[in-house]
Write a structure and sequence with these properties.
The structure holds 2 protein chains of 2 kinds. Chain A is α/β, with parallel strands linked by helices. Chain A has 2 domains: 32 residues; 136 residues, Glutaredoxin (3-Layer(aba) Sandwich), CATH 3.40.30. Helices cover 46% and strands 15% of the residues of chain A. The longest helix of chain A is centred in the middle third of the chain and has 16 residues. The termini of chain A are far apart. Chain B is mainly β. In chain B, the strands form 7 sheets. Chain B has a 4-stranded antiparallel beta sheet, with no helix packed on it. A 4-stranded antiparallel beta sheet of chain B has the order 5-6-7-8, with no helix packed on it. Chain B has a 4-stranded antiparallel beta sheet with strand order 9-10-11-12, covered by helices on one side. In chain B, β13 and β14 form a beta hairpin. The longest helix of chain B has 9 residues. Chain B is globular and about 50 Å long. The relative contact order of chain B is 0.09. The chains are: A alpha/beta, B mainly beta. Chains A and B meet through α1, α2, α4, α5 and α6 of A and α1 of B.
Chain lengths: 171, 413
């Protein structure tokens, strides 16, 4: 089955069960999406690219129920503010090749597949964590509020909705 | 048609948006991830976690998971060399073997081998605690049974197991049945509950006659940190876990089970580091009880009051505690401590990370925990690090440390 046939089938099937916009979205998803492996170089480039912008970096894991609450919280806020640009970067902290599929499933469920996503490379969780913040000990969720000057303010645990709104929406 | 199935299951349906756990139900229908070809041979280097223990005959067993199967390997020279590894004759299932959550192995004094693990279920954050027993030193195993008796699609994991010489099995785990029921009623829950199961398969007439009891020991526990337990000098279980006090203050708690009285003993708060976090620390503690019934404990916190690894002991089952001693170099990412009391030695191991490699650290006290020797590096890891554990063979303590893609390290202290 070639790619075009696959997409047509997917689109046709979806049309039977969902509205057009969903079908379009999911036809897009069927192309798949790639996450970027986290590295020191990628992190440096990201920080450089975001200079002048206030953004939020969320580190999450499959083994962290509170992380899912945070992803849901951000998704809900995004839906409530469709015309606002949400400057959020997600990093999955599960450094295992075995979870490659599962992490993508989660990203799709929380509508995060079209934003910038990173993941910790297999066996590199502690190294990547250290590159982000040597004073972070792996507790999750871990979020960084990054200001326009590129200064990181780290916070562990589930974020408060008001705090996220204030940082991302009240600019 | 694989693409179609995939698209349907990826739909952000209303069901998926109803709660943080619900997305897993639809994920279960999706295609399975491709296995890592490099690790098809079940080599221990591919394992993220390894569990080790000495059998009463002096054999060292190590246990890991590959392709949903339990793999075991025996050393008859304390880890210097190992016999060929063996895929245990237990059907494949989704065995959790990551970070704080991994299979356990224990023995009785007549060749019984006991295994317990958490088996992930079809919905995110749901699992069952499983158990299998071998009467013939690992040649055959009983069909695995589920230890938790609530029959609910809820969380049951982070199992720890102790087995007495005569085969009394004690398994503790973090149980989500109360939280599950509360959620169904639209109420909020605060963490998990601590449960205990007991059974004796060795003395049962047939394997089928033994049934695990289920007893709730505590509620409002942290949901993602391993439990620690040891027998005290009265043969009672001493259990150390991370509890949730007040508004998400994550501190360690200790409970000693009194088997001879109806009235349960009082649980005690052990740490007062004031780590307030609505999240997952992913760091449990360790406990070892000495011959004078002094409880030695170690834990990790990142609180306003205390940060890092701490050691303390108690001569009255946790009612009072020595002043906690800081262990390791906080700025070097000192974490994941484990300890053991053996004869006059209290050994503590933990890991540190310098940005490039992990270091397995060790320090010893020979004066009952009043002072400790200077910390020393025992080994290094280049590709990540499992938690280190101290295991005991008579009067000698050994450290077991899995180093993914590098090799399992085990040596006498």
């Amino acid at each position: 089955m070639n790619k075009l046939t696959s997409r047509c089938l997917a689109l046709a099937f979806c049309l039977m069960f969902c509205n057009l916009s969903q079908a379009q979205n999911n036809a897009y998803e069927s192309k798949g999406f790639e996450l970027q492996p986290f590295s020191q170089d990628a992190f440096t480039a990201l920080k450089q690219q975001k200079l002048g912008v206030r953004w939020l970096m969320v580190v999450w894991s499959l083994d962290c129920p509170a992380c899912f609450k945070e992803l849901k919280l951000i998704q809900t806020l995004q839906k409530a503010n469709p015309n606002k640009r949400f400057e959020v970067i997600y990093i999955n902290a599960d450094d295992s090749n075995e979870v490659e599929f599962e992490r993508k499933q989660v990203l799709a469920v929380y509508g995060m597949q079209n934003v910038e996503n990173f993941y910790f490379v297999d066996g590199q969780a502690d190294k990547s964590r250290y590159q982000i913040d040597p004073n972070w000990y792996g507790e999750l969720p871990r979020s960084y509020f990054v200001d326009e000057q590129g200064v990181f303010h780290g916070k562990s645990g589930l974020l408060d909705e008001v705090l996220i709104s204030k940082w991302l929406l009240d600019k | 048609m694989v693409v179609v199935v995939s698209v349907i299951s990826w739909l952000p349906t209303s069901q998926a948006m109803t709660g943080e756990h619900d997305h897993q139900a639809m994920m279960a229908k999706q295609e399975k991830p491709k296995p890592d070809n490099k690790c098809k041979n079940a080599a221990i280097e591919c394992a993220k976690t390894v569990t080790s223990a000495f059998a009463p005959n002096g054999d060292l067993w190590r246990l890991w998971v590959s392709q949903e199967r339990l793999i075991a390997q025996i050393s008859q020279d304390n880890g210097a060399t190992f016999l060929k590894h063996k895929v245990l004759p237990i059907p494949a299932e989704k065995i959790s073997a990551r970070n704080e959550n991994r299979p356990k192995i224990a023995f009785d004094n007549t060749g019984g081998v006991y295994l317990s693990w958490a088996m992930a279920r079809e919905k995110k954050y749901t699992a069952d605690v499983r158990f299998s027993y071998s009467r013939d030193y690992g040649k055959t195993f009983t069909k695995p049974i589920t230890v938790n008796n609530d029959n609910l699609l809820a969380g049951h994991s982070f199992n720890e197991m102790l087995v007495s010489d005569n085969g009394d099995v004690s398994i503790v785990w973090l149980d989500g049945r109360i939280a599950h029921q509360l959620r169904k009623q639209g109420k909020q829950s605060k963490g998990s509950a601590l449960f205990l199961a007991k059974a004796n398969f060795k003395n049962a007439n047939s394997n089928k006659t033994a049934v695990f009891t289920n007893q709730q020991l505590a509620n409002d526990t942290c949901v993602c940190c391993r439990i620690a337990m040891d027998f005290n000098q009265h043969g009672e279980l001493a259990i150390l876990w991370r509890h949730i006090y007040g508004d998400n203050i994550r501190e360690f708690a200790l409970l000693t089970l009194n088997q001879n009285e109806d009235k349960p003993k009082q649980p005690y708060q052990i740490s007062y580091d004031h780590w307030k976090i609505n999240g997952c620390p992913h760091q449990g503690g360790a406990i070892s009880v000495d011959k004078l019934n002094r409880y030695h404990m170690v834990w990790f916190n990142q609180g306003d009051v205390g940060k890092g690894i701490f050691y303390a002991s108690s001569s009255d089952e946790g009612k009072t505690l020595t002043t906690p001693i800081s262990v390791g170099e906080l700025s070097a990412q000192a974490s994941h401590p484990h300890l053991n009391k053996n004869n006059d030695n209290i050994d503590i191991v933990w890991t540190q990370f310098n940005g490039i490699e992990h270091q397995l650290m060790h320090q010893r006290s020979i004066d009952n925990g009043k002072t400790f020797s200077q910390a020393a590096v025992l080994a290094k890891a280049k590709n990540g690090s499992d938690r280190p554990f101290i295991i005991k063979k008579e009067n000698v303590s050994y450290v077991s440390w899995q180093r993914p893609k590098q090799g399992h390290w085990i040596e006498a202290l």
